[in-house]
Specification:
Layout (H helix, E strand, L loop, with lengths): L12 E2 L6 E2 H5 L3 E6 L6 H12 L1 H6 L2 E7 L3 H15 L7 E3 L4 H6 L13 E6 L5 E7 L7 H17 L1 E2 L10 E3 L5 H7 L5 E4 L2 E4 L8
Helix pairs in contact: 2-4
The protein binds benzoic acid.
Length: 214
């Protein structure tokens, strides 16, 4: 399955370190980060899962639930979780799907056979409360992901939802943003009463709405 932006994220039921999970029920009205790692007891994956555990509060503050996956069995997940806590300083605090039958991996296209036909690649899906896919990222097995960057993109997507602004290159929280082209100047007067700067008619820069940083 080749999932693309705007597609409906497939529902599934699978075993996890927190018991059997039905994805839609578990997700409820939250945003979701569903991500795969190649293999338990491997070094880069160990650092990644520790980091995601460290960032738990950051995800919660954005109404995001996180769920991991690999095709390893539950028993391996449980034993490996002890290593993560021991070596990374953060214990696993989100469910890890044990997708030994590859049900979810196949639904989400997480196995790329020309890279490896036995393990998942480093896939990330951000899924909104309507179960639409809003972001996909794929990294190779040898490169650990930057989960702070993932939070940055989630912030951008959620800002667009809330305020009809887009975020420019290398944007970070509190920096100026861009009024989306579909908002007319007339509408913008209501939405951004403090005004904006028109660099070009299609490039209108405004302070980040809702931010105390100016
Ligand atoms: C790792 O997590 O270190 C890793 C996993 C699979 C292939 C290469 C590296």
């Amino acid at each position: 399955m080749n999932l693309r932006l705007g597609d409906t994220a497939p529902d599934f039921t699978q075993d996890s370190t927190e018991g059997k999970i039905n994805f839609y029920e578990w997700a409820g009205d939250s945003w979701v980060v569903l991500f795969s790692h190649p293999k338990d007891f491997t070094p880069v994956c160990t650092t990644e899962l520790g980091e995601v555990s460290r960032l738990k509060l950051q995800f919660q503050q954005r109404n995001v639930k996180v769920i991991g996956l690999s095709v390893d069995p539950l028993d391996d997940h449980r034993r490996w979780a002890e290593d993560i806590a021991e070596t990374q300083g953060y214990a696993l605090n989100f469910p890890l799907l044990a997708d030994a039958d590859r049900h979810v991996s196949d639904l989400y296209g997480m196995i790329h056979p020309n890279a490896s036909d036995t393990t998942t690649v480093r896939s990330v899906f951000v899924i909104d409360p309507n179960k639409k896919v809003r972001l996909t990222i794929t990294y190779p097995a040898s490169t650990g992901r930057n989960f702070e960057e993932l939070l940055r993109v989630i912030d951008s997507i959620q800002l667009t939802e809330q305020y009809k602004v887009a975020t420019p290159v290398n944007w970070h929280q509190g920096e100026d943003v861009i009024i989306v082209p579909s908002v007319t100047d007339e509408e913008a007067k209501d939405r951004f009463p403090e005004g904006w700067t028109t660099v070009k008619p299609y490039l209108r820069v405004v302070h980040q709405p809702g931010s105390s940083v100016h």
